[in-house]
Each structure stands twice: as structure tokens, then as C-alpha cells.
Amino acid sequence: MMGEFALSYAARGWHVFPCNVLNKRPLVRRDLDAEGKETPGTGGVKKATADVDQIREWWQRWPTAMIGVACGPASGVWAIDPDAPKKPGEPDGRANWAALCLKHGCAATHTHLTPGGGKHLLFRWRPDRPITNSEGTITGTGINVRGDGGYVIAPPSKRHDGKAYEIAEPLDFFSFAEAPDWLYAMLRPKAREQARTDYRPSSRSSAHPIGRIQGILNRVASTTEGDRNKVLFWGAMRVVEMVVEKEVPPSEGDRAFAALCDAGRHAGLPENEIIRTLQSARARA
Question: CA–CA separation, 165 vs 157, rounded Å?
Fold first, then answer.
């Protein structure tokens, strides 16, 4: 039955793939090379498709699999994902998103309700305003972003506990609003001025340090299973190096580490692995 919904989405132009009911991770593995080794960047969301035969094959193999939808140009949408706090002290993305909308305004759009109490608000993809998985200036607010390289779970997918994703408002189904300018500005902020003159661009790269950090976050967030810990550690070490070499102030490094936590979560890493990996990188500073 879930496969029929996946086919229905594909018929509307969405590129889909099956996800694990336990943890939302992709079930489709990466390609194998001539030596039988997995090829990085070929599994998971990279396998998303609208091909009918492939979709039928997947859901015959995993009939209860949740429906993953690739965000970005493939499906023509991207998403804001305000989360409910999972434990005391965590930011409430729902409240923070509501506050932003109250202040700036935001049109109604196709929206999913998640089993965890959050939402997926889907906006029309614009090639001239590409969005990645970076939260920009709203990092740390509990509001996640699912753009090119990311994905969301679509209704009526069910978790292992039977709780399902739902359509928030049937009248908005597949009616995708244009994201407001203020949101684009927050997600794609202009490079900030360096905090102090003694923090300088690296001799290894002419890119602005903030832009480099943004690239690191994007890479970590879009990494698929098998390389996630390694890439998270790589990203953390690059941030550590930037602080040590005074390319960015320590405060910017702290913000980058907080954003790396979010990127690791988006990539599907468990919380304890994220913390352990980042602590290991900090210990080498």
C-alpha cells in the first residue's frame, strides 16, 4: 500500500526512495565498484527517482518503508522543518518558527505534520535562489532546512511505533507557496565582516572563512551512511584549524561547532556519536 502512495507522488513529479521505519535512514545502498566496494555519493537520497519500475521494485522489497522525498531541483521543492524539543533545554523550533512568521509573515503552503510534533513546510524550488541544508542565521533555533541534498518523509509514512506523517491542511496539498524574501535572507546571509583585523583569510584559500564554514556544514549534512563520522570529524578539524590559525575568532568556532551538531543530525548520526566525534576534534586543538 505504501508503494502506491510512493508511485502517486512520483506521478506528480517528486523523486522518492524508501526509508527505514526505525530511524528514517535510506534503505537504498550505494553502488559497488569493480572491486565490490561502495562508491561514495551514490546511495540514499542520490537514488531518489520517479521511475515506476524502480519504485515498485523497492516497495516490493520493503513494503512498509517510509517514503523519502528528495528536496531540491529533482522534486521542485525545499522544506523548513521546525522540530519539537526532544529533551529539556533544547530549542523549540515550532515556537521559533511561529515567532518569525508572526513578525515577518509567511503564506500558507503544503505542510506535513510529523509524528514527533514538528512540521515540514514545503516551498517552491527556485533555480535562481538555490537552498542547501544549511540553517544560515537561524542555526540553533530548532528550525532545520531541507534543500538540495536533503530529504523529508512524506505522508502517510508510518514509523515502527505506528505513528504516521499527515497532511496538515488538505486544501494546501501540492500547493507550494513562494518562500518569503526574509527567509531567503536568513538562509543565505551575506558574508559577515571579520570580527577583528588580526583574523585573516588562510593562505591556502582565498574564500571568506564564513563561506568556507558554510561549505563544511553543507558537506557534513549531505554525507550518506558509511562516511558520516569521518566527514564530521574532518569538518570539525577544519574549524579547529581555522580558530587556531586565527582565521576566525573562537566565538565563531563555537557557533560552527553548534551548527556541526545540527549537520550531523541531518546526516543521520546518533547524538552520542556526534558528541564523541566533536569532542575528539576539540581535544586535538
Answer: 6
pLDDT tens sequence for the chain (285 residues): 899 999 999 999 999 999 999 999 999 988 888 888 878 778 889 999 999 999 999 999 999 999 999 999 999 999 999 999 988 888 999 999 999 999 999 999 999 999 999 999 999 999 999 999 888 888 889 999 999 989 999 999 999 999 999 999 999 999 999 999 999 999 976 443 333 334 344 444 445 777 788 889 888 888 876 778 888 989 888 888 888 778 888 888 888 888 888 888 888 888 888 888 888 887 765
Residue 113: phi and psi, rounded to 5, are -100, 130
* Those residues with Cβ within 8 angstroms of residue 45's Cβ, 6 or more apart along the chain or in another chain: 17, 26, 68, 70, 149, 150, 151, 224
- Is the peptide bond between 18 and the residue preceding it cis, with omega within 30 degrees of 0? no
Fill in the DSSP letter of residue 172: G
> Cα–Cα distance between 62 and 48 in angstroms, integer?
15
Which helix (H) or strand (E) covers residue 7, if one does? helix 2-11
Handedness of CA 104, 105, 109, 113 (dihedral sign): positive
Cell of 257: 561547532
| Predicted structure pTM score | 0.68
- Each domain of the chain, given as residue ranges in start order, spans 2-187, 209-283
Q: Do residues 93 and 84 make contact, with C-beta atoms less than 8 angstroms apart?
A: yes
Neighbour-count burial for 217-239, b at 16+ CB within 10 Å, e otherwise: bbbbbbbbeebbbebbbbbbbbb
